[in-house]
Structures are given as structure tokens and as C-alpha cells.
Amino acid sequence: MFIKYSRIIIFTLGTFIFLNYGWNNSIYPIKKTAKKTENCRKKLMGVYEFDDYGIRLIIITRKSELYFRNYPENYSVNRATWLGKCKFKLTTVSIHDDPDLSNERVGNEWVSDYYKIDGNKFYYRNYNKGEMTNFGYIIKKTSKIPAKFKSM
Fold first, then answer.
1. Could you tell me which residues come within 8 angstroms of residue 109 by beta carbon, excluding any fewer than 6 positions away?
2. Are 126 and 77 part of one and the same domain?
3. Chain centre to alpha carbon of residue 61
4. How many domains are contained in the chain?
5. What is the pLDDT of residues 92-137, one digit of tens each?
6. Burial of 104 by CB count in 10 Å (0-12 exposed, 13-18 middle, 19+ buried)?
7. Residue 129 is assigned to a structural domain of this protein
8. Fewer beta carbons within 10 angstroms: which end of the chain, N or C?
9. Domain match, 16 and 86 both
10. Does 111 reside within a domain?
């Protein structure tokens, strides 16, 4: 009698685990993650206020983050390679600024992870070689990207 019930319990537990973990985590997350990543890109696109490292303004496009010391003349272009939901690797590809005043160097790489959105505040953590280098938030001013920078 005990063996009969233990088989039923094991079968029920096995089915429960497969349906909740095996099925959902092996089939659906690919679609869900892709959808969440696309939603994150759309939410992130825009113009942000920032005041750190000499940067005063950030523009996030589909492909890049642009950091402005003085808008619109002094900026750097950082190409984004999406890694996950709201996480991407940034590589500095060009600098339109005085090298002595900019902290950027072509070839710099780091990972940005936007982990929380609270109204118009977007909270991030930056990593370099797996170590967290800084964290904070940026404040979204508008979703409209100036025409000059849309294609970057």
C-alpha cells in the first residue's frame, strides 16, 4: 500500500516539477526574454539627465549610448551589444571631445545593467571585468531622440 502511494506522490511531484520548471524554463523563457529585451530597449530609448564623471546628458538609441559633457558638441559614442533583458556591453567607438577633458578612450568596454525602473528614474549598475565599478540612476527627460543622433 505504501509503495503504491509513494509512486503516486513521486509521479505527481515529478509532473509538477517538469511543468513548472522544465517546461517553462526550457521553452518559454526564450520568447519571454526576447520580448522583455525588446521592451527594455524601447523604454530605455530617450534623453536623460545625469551628473557624474563630467557627463551632463545621456542619449540612448537602439544601438548606442551617447555621453555628453556639453550638448551637442562634446560627446562620446558607445556601441551597445545586448546581453540580456536590460543588460548590454558598451564599447567606446568614437569621441567628439577634447581628450584632456574626457574620461573616455576608444576601445573602453564595460557592462551596464538597468535593473529597476521607477517612474522616470532608471537605476543601473556598471561592471568592468565582472567587478561592479559604479551604480546610480539616470532621469529620463524625454523619449524623443534628436534627429542628429537617431542613426547612431
1. 89, 90, 91, 92, 128
2. yes
3. 12
4. 2
5. 999 988 877 777 789 999 999 999 999 999 999 999 999 999 999 9
6. buried
7. yes
8. N
9. no
10. yes
Helix (H, G, I), strand (E, B) or coil at 88: strand
- Give 36-91 pLDDT, tens digit per residue: 555 787 889 999 998 777 788 999 988 898 989 888 888 899 999 989 888 999 99
Task: Indicate if 138 and 77 belong to the same structural domain.
Answer: yes
Please return the burial class of 141, using the count of CB atoms within 10 Å of its CB with bins 0-12, 13-18 and 19+. Answer: middle
C-alpha to C-alpha distance for 149 and 45, rounded to whole angstroms: 12
Overall size of the chain counted in residues:
152
pLDDT at 10: 60
Has this prediction a pTM greater than 0.90? no
Residue range(s) defining the domain that contains residue 20 = 2-32
- How far apart CA 5 and CA 10 sit, in angstroms, is 9
Pairing of strands 64-70, 109-118: unpaired
What distance in Å separates the CA atoms of residue 138 and residue 61, rounded to the nearest whole number? Answer: 15
The pLDDT of residue 31 is 41
Q: Does residue 118 lie within any of the structural domains?
A: yes
C-alpha radius of gyration, the chain, whole number: 22
- Are 59 and 24 in a shared domain? no
